[in-house]
Amino acid sequence: MNNFDFKNPTKIIFGKDTIKNLENEIPKDAKVLLLYGGGSIKKNGIYEQVKSALAKVDVVEFGGIPANPEYAVLLEALAIIKKENITYLLAVGGGSVIDGTKFLASAALYEGETPWDILSQHIRTEKGMPFGTVLTLPATGSEMNSGAVITRAETKEKLAMGGPGLFPEFSILDPQVIASIPKRQLANGLADAFTHVLEQYMTYPVEALLQDRFAESILQTLIEVAPKVLKDPTDYKASANFMWSCTMALNGLIQKGVPTDWAVHAMGHELTALFGIDHARTLAIITASHYTYNFETKKEKLAQYGERVWQITEGTLEEKAHAAIVKTEAFFKGLDIDTKLSDYTDDYEGTAEEIAKRFTNRGWVALGEHQSLSPDKVQEIVKMAY
Question: In the chain, where are the structural domains located?
Fold first, then answer.
């Protein structure tokens, strides 16, 4: 096991009817900017619960943060923060709203030339404006980590940011919110969390026994609850396990002491930026091709994953590893998620070359757990995903 430091300061408030606890978490003298997405929270009762809990606090609202948090929209919210002298941010939504709020928490205190520098220059946020979250869509784990990804439509870019100043002070997780989520978004959440675990697990063995079993237990839980959640999102037991699995998949715990990959995400982000494909679906497009291309360096963990998660007991190590890739792709398809780029667009020719060019221009020349994936190899992986 590798050396590591671990600190996660986010307070989790989990369970039924916990949104009312907002009243106890936000400072009484705060001026709050309430941030949300397309307005679904006003249809499912969450908005009313939040407003009731904030009755004693000065609140300004900003809605309309899109599914891929858009830089231009966030600049509008940033202007409100400065005009209204906002001192606290509250994200009520899924990963996109929370990621957008993290950008605002950083940008509100940024003194550089333009807030886009935070993303384009990979500026680490040591201190941000304080914020909390009410999670309405389990998927990204953004409610308990310090990372975010922001999209800029005018340049067709999707870039990551982060730093210790971007942990939420608290996050409220009420599994009852899942009851109103459309099936497509539930499927996306399941696939997103599943892939988050794989990015931190599907590398090579380092004798981190507990970390491996943490990761495998999350994968097993997602596999078990997926059909239940999709069939009946009012199933509280299944929903609770789904929500907590998504949070645990990316709160920093399972990546400690082990090598991590994240090349699937790097490629997937470009597919979203270029074609507007849902984030989780871009991960499903890339995963099998990535594992197949890098089979020799990943086969030990692939076989272990096949044995422990999918109960593949017969065959050689290589046969088990190949079978594990097939099982993973079948899992995505079982969520009604297509796994080839051509399933989403007819305009895919040249995509691999464009992504390789972007990586070269950014200096992203050594991706993956071995830092061995150069842009030409990325180009081959993306072509395999056509």
Answer: 11-176, 182-384
For the stretch 212-226, what's the b/e string if a residue is b when 16 or more beta carbons lie within 10 angstroms of its beta carbon? Answer: bebbbbbbbbbbebb
Task: Give residue 243's identity as a one-letter amino acid code.
Answer: M
Q: Which CATH class name applies to 11-176? A: alpha beta
Residue 232 CB partners (closer than 8 Å, separation 6+): 238
pTM reported for the whole predicted model: 0.95
Q: How do beta strands 157-162 and 147-152 pair?
A: antiparallel
Fold match, 11-176 / 182-384: no
Which CATH number is 182-384 given? 1.20.1090.10
> In the beta sheet, which residues pair with residue 124?
none
Q: Tokens standing for 24?
A: 């106890």
Residue 259 near residue 203 (C-beta atoms within 8 A) = yes
Q: Which helix (H) or strand (E) holds 134?
A: strand 131-135
Question: Average pLDDT for consecutive 10-residue bins of the chain (386 residues)?
Answer: 96 97 94 93 92 95 94 97 97 96 97 94 96 96 96 93 97 96 95 98 97 98 98 97 98 97 97 95 98 98 98 97 98 97 96 97 95 97 97
